[in-house]
Amino acid sequence: MSVTATSRSTNPLATNAGTNSTQSQTSTGLDAASFMQLFTTQLANQNPMEPMDSASFLNQFAQITSVQTMNGLSTTMTGLKDSMNTLKSATQFTQAEGLLGRNISYTDSTGTLKQDKVDALRVGSDGSVQLSISGGSLVDVSAVRQVL
After folding, report:
1. What is the pLDDT of residues 14-42, one digit of tens each?
2. Rounded to an integer, what distance in angstroms lies between the CA atom of residue 1 and that of residue 3?
């Protein structure tokens, strides 16, 4: 009877050696639950004469968990940024609304200090608020220096 040597199974997470770990996890879609299932299957089917190095698997599991946490944090931060931008626009609109019909001094695009009356408000598609003054020009709320 001849015995054929079995080779140790390769680590599926290390097959893309040299690539970014985030990229390989994204392309394979391997999450923590899938990793644990793969890990336990490999442990159950390992060659008892050449046991696997469990430390490397645990390190990879920690990396997967870390990347998932960072992705969640990134999503949360994006939502927070959007909320802050909405709040900024609402605050600017509220401030500008109080300027309707009032005389203001403002700095124009050349840096010259001017005075005029606010006739209307304009909200841009990006949420920025501008004042329409009696001279027909648009002035950004941040250019207002004084309410007269």
Report:
1. 444 444 444 444 445 666 677 778 777 87
2. 7
Tens of pLDDT, residues 106-126: 998 888 899 999 999 888 888
The model's pTM: 0.47
The residue type at 84? M
Sheet arrangement for strand 129-133: 138-140, 129-133, 113-123, 103-107, 144-147
Together in a domain, 78 and 34: yes
Shared-domain flag, residues 103 and 138: yes
Specify whether 42 is located in the same domain as 76. yes
Range of the domain at 126: 98-147
What dihedral do alpha carbons 17, 21, 26, 27 form, nearest 10°?
A: -10
